[in-house]
Amino acid sequence: MQLNNSQIKILVIEDEESVRANILEILESEDFEAIGANNGQTGIQEAKNQLPDLILCDIMMPDMDGYTVLSELQEDSLTAIIPFIFLTAKADRDDLRLAMELGADDYITKPCTVTELLSAIASRLKKQATYNQQFQTERSKAKGLQARVKELQNLSKNRADLLQRLTQELRDPLSNITMAIQMLKLAPTEAARAHYLKILQQECAREIAIINQISNLQEFLVPENAKLLQRFKSSLDRTPDENSSN
């Protein structure tokens, strides 16, 4: 999956000016749109205002550390889904486990090479792009399924009225057929008999047409339609993460 860096916005939250400036320069040289924040509080505001495609955040910062930044961003539905990578000089396993438990997607140990930095960013962006593509695919499927289910629901809603109307239409030609048969028996002339035979032919044709309509209606009452409704309900009950994993 080819990504267009010029359309990707990355927020760098780093209190050390030289480190922050260096990372921003690297990102800009790769055509990313890079945004810098010199502390956690500013980083949170930039994240909410800019809604970047990815966030790089230092852990050890004064006033507000990276863990707190991530926790606050996780409380906002718009920023909670932004891929988040920690920048850390600490390689302690407990610290890294805490980062992952809080919802971080990855971490980069400082100091790092340009290759390591860009590789971690590319890997995370590709995973996010794949997730977004799968989500959109599932969403399109759900919309198509929803349209079909709505059609079936409308048919189901009108089914009682339709069956009642068809029943009445069946009775009408049958009454005319019965009457024509009686009149045919009493017809005094060939012309009269021909007249009532014509009525019988017309009413029989009408009866057959109505029966065909009933046969066509049966296709909406087959078990497959029940399965379709169940599939649609199941797709709505699942979360986007569950849909993308299936």
Automatic annotation (TrEMBL):
Task: Enumerate the spans annotated as Response regulatory domain.
Answer: 9-125
Q: Which Gene3D superfamilies match?
A: 1.10.287.130, 3.40.50.2300
Show the InterPro entries listed in the entry.
Answer: CheY-like_superfamily (IPR011006), HisK_dim/P_dom (IPR003661), HisK_dim/P_sf (IPR036097), Sig_transdc_resp-reg_receiver (IPR001789), WalR-like (IPR039420)
Q: Which domain of life is it from?
A: Bacteria
Q: So what does this thing catalyse?
A: ATP + protein L-histidine = ADP + protein N-phospho-L-histidine
Q: This protein is called what? A: histidine kinase
- Which keywords appear in this protein's UniProt record, sorted alphabetically? Coiled coil, DNA-binding, Phosphoprotein, Transcription, Transcription regulation
Keyword Kinase carried by entry: no
Q: Which residues carry this modification: 4-aspartylphosphate?
A: D58
Coiled coil, from the record:
135-172
Q: Matching Pfam families, A to Z?
A: Response_reg
Q: What CDD domains does the annotation carry? A: HisKA (cd00082), REC_OmpR (cd17574)
Record flagged with keyword Coiled coil? yes
List its EC numbers. Answer: 2.7.13.3
